[in-house]
Design goal:
Elements (H helix, E strand, L loop, with lengths): L1 H26 L12 E7 L48 E7 H12 L9 E7 L5 E3 L9 H14 L19 E3 L2 E16 L6 H21 L2 E9 L3 E4 L1 H6 L8 H15 L5 E9 L6 H15 L6 E6 L7 H9 L6 E6 L5 H9 L4
Parallel strand pairs: 6-7, 6-9, 9-10, 10-11
Antiparallel strand pairs: 1-2, 3-6, 4-5, 7-8
Helix pairs in contact: 2-4, 4-9, 6-7
Length: 368
Amino acid sequence: MFRIERDRARFREIVRGRLRRDLRKFLSSSELLGRRGEETISVPVTQIETPRFKYGTNSDGGVGQGPGAEGDELQGDESDGESAGRAGEQEGEHILEVDVDLAELAEMLGEELELPNIESRGDRMLSVKGGSYSGIRSVGPKSLRHFRRTYKQALKRTIAAGEWNPDHPEVTPTREDERIRCLKEQPKPESSAVVFHIMDVSGSMGREQKEIVRIKAFWIDTWLRKQYDNLEVIYIVHDAVAKIVDQETFFHLRESGGTKISAAYDTCLTEILERYRPEDWNIYPFHYSDGDNWSARDTERCIAVLRDEILPRVNQFCYGQVKSAYGSGQFKKDLDTALSDEEGLVTCAVDDREGIPDAIRAFLGKGR
């Protein structure tokens, strides 16, 4: 058994090496997005072959076992080029799927992009079951009986009843004397975070732009789940109006209306004020758009809401601008000009999938 575990550990180290080598490829593709479970993710890697001998030519003659001479035809030989079923000469590439813990994948992401751990703020005190049987009660399984407490209780009852004889000390515990160990619930601080993924779903945001957003959101969530015990994710979509939706709708909804970004910021602010107090929650809004807004007046309102209401309440606000054929990209320029002194604001432009790793590093690289 020890040898099996040793070989398994070595195999996992080999797989980790393959994942580290190919991680950049996964950061820019959607290959992993449909393979995620609750705690693990199925990662495809090129099949790892078991080492084996490779035999050369037989200098002593013969064709295997038994007599033979040079030039003798082998049964089943396909050297004539007309053998049935020949489809090609090259060996196919075999893919092996390996389950990897999401926490382990997040660790690889942090090492690859050199991300610092986040210094969280605010801890909620939650009542959780402790890890030791420090509580005592009078009922429970006999396997958890606390002998000393049980004997002490029986001794006290015997003395109180006048049945104690110093010359013949004898204590017999009854069922009422038994004391049983039990798990004791204790308050435990839990660091919590909420992520707001906000996306422009107007007609100018095409399928490729949404796929870029989807990939970025996956890696951002993976990293933040490693940093926080409790993570909630809120999805907000907007065109001229904003609404909260589920994950499936978020990545597949497409509208044909105009774009009013302030509607999304107002929705996000309302959720923060009503459900996520900054004293208890670490708050991370991520907004994705192609940079078009319906008017300069609405952009001014967005800047005011960010500066006066949202930024003072969140750990960091991130704006990712994806390039599209219809987007002007003006909104990022306006944010950078008006809020250049705000440390809690991070903006980044992503032209294509190759820019996703740099965007993730820009969003998560400050450790806020």
